[in-house]
From TrEMBL:
Binding note for cofactor: Binds 1 Fe(2+) ion.
One Pfam family per UniProt: Pep_deformylase
Gene Ontology molecular function, alphabetical: metal ion binding; peptide deformylase activity
EC number: 3.5.1.88
UniProt cross-references to NCBIfam families, sorted A to Z: pept_deformyl, PRK00150.1-3
Origin species: Deinococcus terrestris
Active-site positions on this chain: E168
Coiled coil: 186-213
Gene Ontology biological process terms, A to Z: translation
Name of this protein: Peptide deformylase
Required cofactor(s): Fe(2+)
Family of the protein in this entry: Belongs to the polypeptide deformylase family.
Tree of life domain: Bacteria
InterPro entries: Peptide_deformylase (IPR023635), Peptide_deformylase_sf (IPR036821)
Length: 219
């Protein structure tokens, strides 16, 4: 990951070990100006569009603002023609198979089907290469959220899409999918997670240098 002050096409995705991923995100409004660390100010719409591009580049199904360093309650997600588990590192984006794109500000989930589903394999773009079954998610949810035009919306989802929305909302509360599995699962990946933490620490050090240079250039 390299921090930059150039206009972004995609953002660096924050990795396990980055403190921003453990913070409870704050509400955001469509008219806000946001600054992804290392980049210039952008509108919420611009940030959301770049997050979508970042998600497609990483072959993901969802991406929450904390995963790009913004502690605000915003996530983007996509519904493909068939269920697509996150598969970062693929050869090309999946846009040709997109049915719907979602941008949700300040989402609030209500469970509509309390039956738990543990069948799907779950992964996370902030924990690349690690996938596990057994994460219990409600089979149906209703999401109340604000769209980019400031309109209040309600959407119902079930099965895989419901899982995606629950996963991304967890990110806004500082929760990883591994947190919802027995502790020994995380322990099984101790070496991999430690490597991610080291990489995250290196990125944050590089980012601090970029931000310092940006401040000095404005003085």
């Amino acid at each position: 990951m390299k921090a930059t002050d150039a206009p972004p096409r995609i953002y660096p995705i924050r990795l396990y070990g980055d403190p921003v991923l453990r913070r409870k995100a704050k509400p955001v409004q469509p008219g806000d100006t946001l600054t992804v660390p290392g980049f210039g100010p952008q509108t919420v719409r611009e940030v959301a569009n770049t997050m979508l591009e970042t998600m497609f580049e990483a072959r993901g199904v969802g991406l929450a603002a904390p995963q790009v360093g913004l502690s605000v309650r915003l996530f983007v997600a996509v519904e493909y023609e068939d269920d697509e588990e996150e598969n970062e590192g693929g050869d090309k984006p999946l846009k040709s198979r997109v049915l719907r794109e979602f941008v949700m500000l300040n989402p609030v989930l209500t469970v509509t089907d309390k039956k738990k589903d543990r069948a799907y394999q779950e992964g996370c773009l902030s924990i690349p290469g690690i996938y596990e079954e057994g994460v219990a998610r409600a089979r149906g949810v209703q999401v109340r959220y604000t769209d980019l035009d400031g309109q209040e919306r309600t959407l119902e989802a079930d099965d895989y899409l419901a899982r995606v929305f629950q996963h991304e909302t967890d990110h806004l509360d500082g929760v990883f999918f591994l947190d919802r599995l027995p502790p020994e699962v995380t322990e099984d990946y101790r070496k991999e997670l430690a490597a991610m933490q080291r990489k995250s620490k290196q990125f944050l050090a590089e980012l601090a240098e970029v931000q310092k240079a940006q401040r000095e250039s404005r003085e």
